[in-house]
Design a protein that fits this description.
Blueprint: E1 4-8, H1 13-25, E2 30-34, E3 47-50, H2 56-65, E4 68-73, H3 80-95, E5 101-103, H4 122-134, E6 138-139, E7 141-143, E8 146-147, E9 167-168, E10 173-177, E11 183-187, H5 189-199, E12 208-210, E13 214-217, H6 218-229, E14 234-238, H7 240-244, H8 261-276, H9 300-308
Parallel strand pairs: 1-2, 1-4, 2-3, 4-5, 5-6, 7-12, 8-11, 10-14
Antiparallel strand pairs: 9-10, 11-13
Amino acid sequence: MATTIAVAGATGGVGKTIVEQILNEGKFPVIGLTRQEHVESPVSGVQYVQVDYEDIYALAQHLESHSVHTVICAIGMLGNECSEAQNNLIKAAEQTQTVQRFMPSEFGYVTFEQRRNIDPGVDWFLTAADLLKKSRLNFTRPVCGAFMDFVGIPHAKSNVPPMTIAVDVLNREACMPGDATNTITMIYSYDAATLVAKMLEVEDWPEFTFCNGEDTTLGKVLELAEEITGEKFKVTWMKPEDVSNGDVPSMTPLEGSGIQPEEQKAYGSFGYQLYLADGFKLPDEGRVGDKFPGFKPRSVREFMTSVWASRV
């Protein structure tokens, strides 16, 4: 019987991209777990299963009835309800006879206790990790860094919500935290999802799966954007102390994105603080792309050139 992969949060930006890339790799059948009765813009060839994350027993039944071997959770950690949904999914997976592996929802930066002053939601990730450590499940915590999709909106192919932060190429504007020289590891969401899909072929999972992104700085990204567009951007420089106090400018939300200005500002404040704390810098050792000959993630230059060079 083929090994079935279940992706929770399969209709979200990260989850949908992972589903697409698992299908693209063509090695495993995949089902999508979703709270929704009807799925908008479903991925062709995927069976979507409506679930109730509050019902652990029913969750386990769904996983067993579809012979799920591996669960990938891509539920966005946006509140206690989302965290509880993931925790219940872990408990349900452990109750089954079929599920052997679990990949929790992290995907952004390395979460540890010292980040609580920046992101109180760190506890959601640590609680899930603790549950997995105490379980019988083999697991790996995926860490991607920062998605470079944000310097390609609105024209880049992407399922990630179109949030304008740091470098707004469309409007030729930028907000630079500090001197913008802290290292940031950047990867295109589809390259990150490809690595997640390829990890399904790896028998022994490490505790952390670090993606092979490009190490750069926001200052270099801004310089590259100006080079490719041939224009100087309007740049706002932010003092570190202002960033730490949440005193940051709100970049203009992309028209039609549905993102409110205050939401945009809150996300930017979090992102800039994490950047100045080197939160988006991934360790050099343990990046998993080296396991897969032929895998080459796009560089920031390649990505931005493909999106913007023909639109100058």
